[in-house]
Write a structure and sequence with these properties.
Elements: H1 14-29, H2 31-42, E1 47-49, H3 53-56, H4 60-68, E2 80-82, E3 92-93, H5 99-121, H6 131-151, E4 159-164, E5 167-173
Parallel strand pairs: 3-5
Antiparallel strand pairs: 1-2, 4-5
Helix pairs in contact: 1-2, 4-6, 5-6
Length: 187
């Protein structure tokens, strides 16, 4: 469950989401794909929550999922993707925190919740969203994020290009960039 007060505010557990991801890979792509994912993770590929923990902590759609979908966790295999952290060969990398990506995902969740609420508003008063409706909305977001990351088609404002000697060598999920010492926020 969501944690309040002192201590960690994370609701995900590495060993759980590693297992869930590998189980999902095997179920959807077979044993060989699972073995390949194990090798990638073992060689340093970090696992990325498509809907990040920091977003899940506060988003009302995730809270509804935690309350209404039996056994729901953001650590489920559908919400995890192993991503390269070096030598991406044209792939998006995962390096550290990614506030711009978090904002993008929050917008997707907001839009999904608004659509669900609109559909609910057309029903008789007192109706509730079903667990299936919530599940389907989250699966669609996860699938679209996975596809966008794997194909390199996330919006450019969410990504940061990496270059060496003026040549673009990769993209990573955008990190918060601070102004250099010469730049002033107040001038």
């Amino acid at each position: 469950m969501l944690k309040v007060g002192k201590g960690t505010s994370r609701i995900s557990i590495y060993s759980r989401y590693r297992k869930n991801y590998l189980d999902w890979v095997e179920k959807t792509h077979g044993r060989a794909a699972r073995k390949a994912a194990e090798v990638r993770i073992g060689s340093g590929n970090p696992m990325h929550h498509l809907i990040p923990d920091a977003v899940a902590q506060r988003h009302p759609l995730i809270r509804k999922a935690l309350e209404r979908i039996e056994g729901y966790t953001i650590d489920r295999g559908t919400n995890i993707l192993d991503m390269p952290c070096k030598d991406p060969k044209g792939k998006i990398m995962h390096l550290g925190s990614h506030p711009k990506y978090n904002s993008y995902v929050t917008t997707l969740l907001d839009d999904a919740l608004e659509s669900l609420d609109d559909a609910l508003g057309k029903r008789k008063p007192g109706s509730n969203l079903t667990p299936r409706e919530i599940e389907d909305a989250l699966l669609e977001i996860e699938m679209n994020l996975r596809e966008a990351i794997e194909s390199g088609n996330l919006p450019m404002d969410v990504l940061k290009e990496l270059s060496e000697d003026g040549i673009v060598v990769g993209k990573k999920l955008a990190l918060l960039e601070l102004p250099s010492h010469e730049e002033s926020l107040t001038a």
